[in-house]
Backbone:
């Protein structure tokens, strides 16, 4: 078991998840090796979601940075040319997958039932799920009530902010995270408190610390600012300013 597989309590450390989208290379993974060595000493939990073709290389080269897929199909296998199954992503070395990213939705036009199937199939294949939603109605429409919530994270991603110039205002982020937390509590009561809620959309090194300092924000999902490695390192450094030092006893073994 690598440290990336070690469960981290929701509030222990903020999560920084890099979504490389259709970018990256094995060289870009190699550029993260130094950060990977430092990662266990940082008061943040790091993850990258490279293109599917790079998952195995990332798994081979990185130990402390968790590896996720960017999307998986709702069926466990079948005649779906170009798609990636949850089982294949897991076999390549992913431990979680993004589901419902607005750019994936624009390509595949999933119904809420399709997204629910993706969540179920991913969890069955052993992948944790990072579900991207635009609001509470979106969350409640696609999240199966019987989801294993201890293996779920949510990302609030306002579609207009993704790829845009500015992140959502902090007050908007806080209000939506509160509303999402309340909605999760209607499904699962106090246990929902353990589900991390991340923010995504135009987060950069200049804005990350303030967003992570907002109440109910448990992490950030980063697109453009996650590459190249130097830009990502600047963001991680900025983010760690807002994170409380991790007591040695809570460091992943
Ligand atoms: P961005 O992308 O940081 O480039 O806006 C965020 C995302 O797609 O999650």
Residues:
């Amino acid at each position: 078991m690598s440290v990336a597989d070690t469960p981290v309590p929701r509030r222990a450390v903020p999560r920084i998840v890099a979504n490389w989208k259709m970018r990256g290379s094995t060289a870009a993974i190699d550029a993260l090796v130094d950060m990977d060595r430092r990662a266990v000493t940082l008061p943040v939990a790091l993850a990258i979601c490279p293109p599917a073709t790079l998952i195995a290389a990332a798994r081979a080269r990185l130990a402390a940075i968790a590896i996720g897929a960017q999307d998986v199909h709702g069926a466990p296998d079948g005649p779906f040319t170009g798609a990636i199954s949850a089982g294949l992503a897991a076999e390549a070395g992913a431990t979680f997958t993004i589901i419902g990213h607005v750019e994936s939705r624009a390509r595949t036009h999933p119904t809420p039932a399709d997204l629910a199937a993706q969540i179920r199939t991913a969890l069955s294949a052993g992948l944790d799920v990072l579900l991207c939603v635009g609001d509470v109605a979106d969350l409640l429409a696609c999240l199966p009530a019987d989801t294993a919530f201890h293996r779920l994270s949510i990302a609030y991603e306002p579609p207009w902010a993704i790829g845009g110039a500015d992140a959502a205002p902090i007050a908007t982020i806080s209000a939506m995270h509160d509303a999402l937390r309340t909605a999760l509590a209607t499904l699962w009561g106090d246990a929902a408190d353990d589900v991390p809620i991340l923010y995504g959309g135009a987060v950069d090194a200049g804005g990350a610390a303030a967003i992570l300092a907002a109440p109910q924000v448990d992490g950030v999902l980063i697109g453009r600012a996650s590459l190249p490695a130097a830009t990502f390192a600047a963001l991680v450094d900025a983010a760690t300013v807002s994170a409380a030092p991790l007591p040695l006893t809570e460091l992943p073994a």
The pocket of 2-phosphoglycolic acid is lined by residues 19, 157, 162-163, 200-203, 221-225 (CB under 6 Å).
